Amino acid sequence: MDDLYQQQILEHAKYPHNFGRLEEPDISHEEHNPLCGDRVRIELLIENDIITNVRFEGRGCAISQASASLLTDELKGMPVEAAKVFRKEELLDLIGIPLTRNPTRLKCALLSLKALKAGLYGIDHLNEDDDDL
Amino acid sequence: MSTLTQFDVLAIRREFPILQQEVHGHRLAFLDSAASSQKPRQVIDCLEDYYRRYNANVHRGVYKFSEEATFAYERARGKVARFIGAASQREIIFTRNTTEAINLVAQTWGATNLRPGDRILLSLMEHHSNIVPWQMIAQRTGAILDYLSIDGEGRLVLEELDQKLTEQTKLVALTHQSNMLGTINPVRMIAERAHAVGAVMLVDGAQSVPHMPVNVAELGCDFLAFSGHKMCAPTGIGVLWGRRKLLEAMPPFLGGGSMIKVVELNQSTYADVPARFEAGTPAIGEAIALGEAIDYLSAIGMEAIYQHEVELMAYALERLGNVPGLTLYGPLTTEQRGGAFSFTLEGVHPHDVAAILDGQGIAVRAGHHCTQPLHRHFDVPATTRASFYIYNLPEEVDRLAVGLEKASKLFQ
After folding, report:
1. Pair (B201, B281) in one structural domain
2. B94 located within any domain
3. Shared-domain flag, residues B20 and B148
4. Contact list, A39 vs chain B (CB under 8 Å)
5. Domain, as residue range, for B274
6. Which residue of A has its CA nearest to B370?
7. How far apart are CA B206 and CA B371, in angstroms?
């Protein structure tokens, strides 16, 4: 279990990248995990169908916050269409820790992606068990 | 730590097959009995014996196994009645769990006795299972919910009874012991106050019945709900005790087999209590195993179990008080307090705390523990909870403290 808390995760959890709010975001969406109270809000600035700036805000466990930090790094400069089909496997690769046999923590890890997708598709809230993302 | 425990905890541990395992290379320290307890061999054997030797549906079967199963099922009802001091075993209704028992009262007693403007008094420390069923019946009947507040130490603000317990109050539903804070509430006094205004008193005993002597005659309540799986019995079996007069005046809960006298095409007459509330095939083996769990706990002694947990709690309060950055929610003494406690660790999310402890073979729970209003009161989204039972040792408190210090360091 200690391999969950590798240096990269701890660093991103302690000093998250892109943390905060945008002044006039084009998209702002928050998702939460009712099981543990984790929250992640993702805000995007979009120009010519490209994500030009991104911020996230939230509170929760190290996995959920590090995941949001890593995801937002990736999103900068990404076409909206690419972000819409960003796969959960890609995010899990970025996080780089074994979570597939740990469904509870998987929900933590994918919370930021859920916020991104729901925001991009203009959906109020994705279903809790919607793991298709 | 010197221990005054009157029973041999190491001998008890040997009775629990699950505790013999290693988790992530460490001996299992199981500190989550408030969620569900482990089961001793005696109970597992009893369940297996039913399924291997005399599995059959209860009541009405005239063959050997069915008669044997019926006898054992009804004997278990008698054991439950004696265990909680019920006047008669007819007052014992087998349910799935505490949740179903409370819903049963809400949907039957509540539906027939609550009128618009009537008030139901709860407290801020209730488990969701003692909140949501009342919200549902309040919406249906027009009744209104009131909540007793809690103070900074996690005890009920009893002064509020003067203003919140009135002639309009028809029901008080209160937990005997908080699953998050460990606080033991003065239910006997509150039952007296409830009766003085003509209200009925339901006690959620999910966290008390497994851990201390509970006698309904002494408590003076009208309903008591509890679960088997938190007291060494299997899942899927719980109990509602109610005063016979109240139960007899209540309409059925679920309709189906076993709960009827005569069924015609357009109407039916209903069985007497408790059968009226036990529609369908019940959890037969599980009920029998609950009876066995009661035998097991009674042989140890409920007072001795309570003392053991108080000693562990006293040690935990002392030992965890030295862990830097730890905030404990709930009473800071063992006065009227059971062996469950919740905390936060500065700079480490409760989920991470639990995961790091799991890595050391220590099982605790993280989240809101089905008490979201209580977490909102303390302004924390989640906490980590540890809880004790008969098989826990002081050295497990030490391991918990060391594990928490390690978690702190990792996130520094």
Report:
1. yes
2. yes
3. no
4. 381
5. 44-299
6. A35
7. 14
pLDDT lower than 50: segments of chain B: 1-2
| Residue B189 falls inside a structural domain | yes
Residues B290, B310 share a domain: no
Angle formed by the axes of helices A7-14 and A62-75, nearest 10°: 80
| Distance in Å, alpha carbon of B26 to nearest chain A alpha carbon | 12
Question: How close, in Å, is residue B320 to chain A by CA atoms?
Answer: 22
Is the Cβ pair A62, B349 closer than 8 Å? yes
Task: Give the model's pLDDT for residue B60.
Answer: 79
Interface test with B, best of A1, A9, A108 (most B CBs within 10 A): A1
* CA neighbor of A56 nearest in space, from A34, A79, A77, A39: A39
pLDDT of residue B78: 98
- Are B58 and B66 contacting, i.e. CB atoms less than 8 angstroms apart? yes
State how far residue B406 is from chain A, nearest Cα, in angstroms.
11
pLDDT of amino acid A131: 52
Range 87-106 of A in CB contact (< 8 A) with B: 105
Distance CA B63, CA B71 (A): 12
The answer on B378 and B277 residing in a single domain is no
CATH architecture of the domain formed by A2-121: Alpha-Beta Complex (3.90)
**What is the total count of domains within chain B?**
2
> Considering only CB atoms, which chain A residues are within 8 Å of B346?
none
- Which residues of chain A fall below pLDDT 70? 1-3, 125-133
Q: How many CB pairs under 8 A join A and B?
A: 53
Looking at chain B, how many residues does it have? 412
pTM strictly above 0.90: yes
Q: Which chain A residues have a beta carbon less than 8 Å from that of B382?
A: 36-37
Contact assignment for A108 to B351 by CB distance below 8 Å: yes
Do B264 and B307 have their domain in common?
no
Torsion angle (degrees, nearest 10) of CA B343, B348, B350, B353:
-100
- For residue A2, what pLDDT is reported? 54
Q: Nearest Cβ partner of A37 from B355, B382, B410?
A: B382
Residue in chain A closest to B403 (alpha carbons) equals A2
Distance of CA A73 to the CA centre of its chain: 10
Length in residues, chain A: 133
Nearest Cβ partner for B381 among A59, A63, A108? A59
pLDDT, tens digit, 9 for 90 and up, residues B316-356: 999 999 899 999 999 999 999 999 999 999 999 999 999 99
The reply to whether B306 and B392 lie within a common domain is yes
Pairing between strand B22-23 and B26-27?
Answer: antiparallel
- B143: nearest Cα among B200, B192, B193, B196: B200
Amino acid at site B169: T
**CA of B411, closest CA in chain A: separation in Å?**
7
Q: Token match 């002064």: residue?
A: B159
